[in-house]
Structure formats: C-alpha cells, structure tokens
Amino acid sequence: MKALIQRVSEASVTIAGKRVGEIQQGLLVLLGIERDDGLDDVTKLANKVASYRVFADADDKMNLSVHDIAGGVLVVSQFTLTADTNSGRRPSFSSAAPPDHAEPLYRAFVSALQHQGITTATGEFGADMAVALVNDGPVTFMLHSNNKG
Prior knowledge:
Blueprint: E1 2-15, E2 18-23, E3 26-32, H1 39-51, E4 55-56, E5 62-64, E6 72-77, H2 99-115, E7 119-122, E8 130-144
Parallel strand pairs: 3-6, 6-7
Antiparallel strand pairs: 1-2, 1-3, 1-8, 4-5
Helix pairs in contact: 1-2
C-alpha cells in the first residue's frame, strides 16, 4: 500500500461539478492499493500518516504531525500509484488491487484515521475526480506500508 502525502493549506475533490470533500490545513493523501495488501497494511500506513511529522513547530522544524496540529486529511483513491513504469512507454497496472479488494481497504484506511480522531474527508472510490490543492512548502512524501519507504 502506498500513500503519496502532500502538506496542504487546503484541498478539495470535485466530481461532476459537485464538491464532495474538502479540508483546510492538513494532508492530501493519494492512496494506492496493491493486490497483496491487507488490513495489516491499512493499520501500518494509517498510523504512519497520522503520526508523520511534516508540520513546522515553533522553531520552524518539521516536528509536528497532522494529529498534533488538529489538521484534516483528504483521502483520494489513486490506483495509478501502483503502476510499474520500469519498461516501455505505457504503465502496467498488474500489481493494482482489483476494485472489489481495494475498496474495502480504502474504506478501512479512512476509518482507521477517523478512529484516531483525525478529521477525514474523501473523494469517491473509482470515480473520475478533480482534485485541487494548495501544496504548502511544497512538501510531498511517498509512504509505504512495507519496508520500501
């Protein structure tokens, strides 16, 4: 499981002209779910996202998490994060979890953040979405549920 996290001052998701999710200061999380991912991956990655220190403290050091600043998290499913781009000129999505496996894990990830007291908004799983954000910094990190990152 992969999460591309971006520190934002605001972010939103619009589907067919209707805003379906938005946050102010916090994290935009683009979530990619792979075939072999399970609930252990959800727990590990949700804990990592909630506690990852990317916000500035009083000394302007990245020492605070989204939980510490009472920020929000906007979670957007993005299967393209699972792409294999090592050969050719077209990505392969063979490692992406099929929707019937990925959607429950996506929902579990959102729930895991909410259970930690984090205000969480979402896009719509599998929908064609317009994601808008103001990347603060810019600050962007790729997190993994396993030891790859």
